[in-house]
Amino acid sequence: MKRAIGVFDSGVGGLTVVAEIMRQLPQEDVIYFGDTAHLPYGPKSPETVKRLVRDSIRFLREEKVKAIILACHTASAFALKGIREENPIPIVGVIGPGAEEALRVTRNKRIGVIGTYGTIESRAYAKELKRRDPEAFVIQKPCPLFVPLVEEGWIKKEATSLIIREYLEPLREEGIDTLILGCTHYPLLKEGIGRVMGKVFLIDSSQATVAHLGRIMEEKALLTREGVGKHSFFVSDAPERFARLGRIFLGKEIEKVEKVA
Q1: Which residues are catalytic?
Q2: DSSP string spanning the chain?
Q3: What is the pLDDT of residues 81-93, one digit of tens each?
Q4: Which CATH architecture has domain 95-205?
C-alpha cells in the first residue's frame, strides 16, 4: 500500500511545505493536518503546544503516514524532540534544516532570522545556529505583520513593500549575508524581501526541510518512485477559510477540506 507523507501545522502556513513536496517529490502522496481550532500556537505555553502537537501527530499516525514534517515553527521548537522519541517513523522540523542551509551558504557568518514574535522569542533558530557553529553571529527580527498581509493576499501591494522595507532595512544595515525566512508564510513574500535585501542569501526553510526529508527517505528506502501524488487536507476547524487561503499558498483550488475532531 502506498503511504503518504504527513504534514502538520497549526494553521495554513504549512502549505508552503506542501507546495515544496509537490515540486521536489511530485510522486508522493500528502496528508495535511492544520490545527486551526487552536491557532496561533506562538503565545501558548510549551506544555500546551506539546499536548496539541501530540494529538495531531496521533491523527496522522492513524492515517498510516510514513514520515511527518512539523511545518509549524513553534511546534518544531517545543515538541520535536519528544515527538521523535515517541514515534518510530522519520519526523523532521523546519528549524534544523533551515539553520543547516544558512550555515552552508553564508560567507561572513552574519545571519539574520525573521519570524513571528513566538518564533523569535523562543530563540530556536539562534540556538540551533550557535549549536552548529559557535562563531555564527545571529541577528533576529520579528515581522508580525507579514502573516496577515499574506493571508489577505496583499503580496504585491505597495503597502506590503513599504512594510517589508520598514522591517528589513535595519537588518540589511547590520551586514548580514544570509537571511532565514523563519515562518512558513514568508516565502510568499520572497520577491519583495529580495528587493529590499539585495545580494543576501534568502533561506526558505520549507525548501530545505523537504530536501532534508527526501534524503532521509532515500536512505530508508521510503521514496515513491513513480506515479503522481494525491493530496488530502484535514483541519480541526473552519475548513472553508482554510480552502480560501489555500489558493493563495498553492496557486490552485483545494477541492476538498475535511474537518476532524
Answers
A1: 72, 183
A2: ---PEEEEESSSTTHHHHHHHHHH-TT--EEEEE-TTS---TTS-HHHHHHHHHHHHHHHHHTT-SEEEE--HHHHHHHHHHHHHH-SS-EEESHHHHHHHHHHH-SS-EEEEEE-HHHHHHTHHHHHHHHH-TT-EEEEEE-TTHHHHHHTT-TT-HHHHHHHHHHHHHHHHTT-SEEEE-STTGGGGHHHHHHHH-SPEEEEHHHHHHHHHHHHHHHTT----SS---EEEEESS-HHHHHHHHHHHHSS----EEE--
A3: 999 999 999 999 9
A4: 3-Layer(aba) Sandwich (3.40)
